[in-house]
Design brief:
Distance between the termini: 19 Å
Mean pLDDT: 89
Shape: elongated
Number of strands: 9
Helix content: 25-40%
Number of domains: 1
Order of helices and strands: EEEEEHEEEEH
Low-confidence stretches: none
Length: 212
């Protein structure tokens, strides 16, 4: 029996949460992220007899979690898939998203210094194929770093458009707003890292309850 699914130990609800603001590309921008991950224990009875007392008490563990991302008026909710015991699927989802985000930022910084030879186009589902949830991330960069990064889940999406202009000598024009937008993506990557640590912390709290 998977320890994250059922057991014999009851405890009060466990919760790990956090939040922070994101750098804005413009002074009027408002951006933030918040996350919360929890596990709840409730009692069930195994093989209840027709007469007398039940043979054994079984404790079911329900794991839930999410991370909200808000930029301007756009907001998406990245939640854990169904039956995600131990938040293993949610962890994989956030790791994959962070890897794709970090790759986009790294490729942008390379192309802004030295133009690449071809466009970069990536599209990736964030959830496993056996779920009806359709969260995804996609990105596109041209040779000079102009492009877009997209995160979508729960029928909503946020687009980070990175605009790169060239002057008369085909040199990239400096843009403070573009730099701040990249900083916003880097802040979000750090937030995803904190969310992953929160999942790990919740598991440690859970293990401590089982050991006590």
């Amino acid at each position: 029996m998977d320890k994250y699914t059922k057991g014999t130990v009851k405890f009060d609800n466990l919760l790990v949460m956090g939040r922070d603001f994101l750098e804005g590309a413009y002074k009027t921008d408002t951006g933030f992220y918040d996350y919360a991950f929890s596990v709840e224990a409730y009692t069930d009875w195994a093989d209840p007899p027709k007469k007398g007392k039940p043979k054994a008490e079984v404790v079911n563990y329900v794991w839930t979690g999410h991370i909200n991302i808000c930029v301007g008026s756009a907001r998406i909710h990245l939640h854990s898939p169904e039956h995600d015991y131990g938040l293993v699927k949610q962890e994989k989802k956030l790791i994959l998203l962070k890897e794709k985000l970090d790759h986009f930022v790294a490729e942008y910084k390379k192309r802004i210094k030295t133009p690449a030879k071809k466009h970069l186009v990536e599209r990736t589902w964030l959830n496993e194929g056996n779920t009806h949830f359709t969260g995804y991330t996609s990105s596109k960069l041209d040779e000079n770093g102009d492009g877009v990064f997209v995160i979508a889940d729960c029928h909503k999406a946020i687009h980070w458009w990175v605009y790169v202009w060239l002057d008369d000598k085909d040199k990239i024009v400096k843009d403070t707003s573009r730099d701040k937008l990249i900083k916003q993506l880097e802040d979000l990557s750090k937030g995803l890292g904190k969310a992953l640590k929160a999942i790990d912390q919740l598991r440690k709290f859970f293990d401590r309850e089982l050991d006590d």
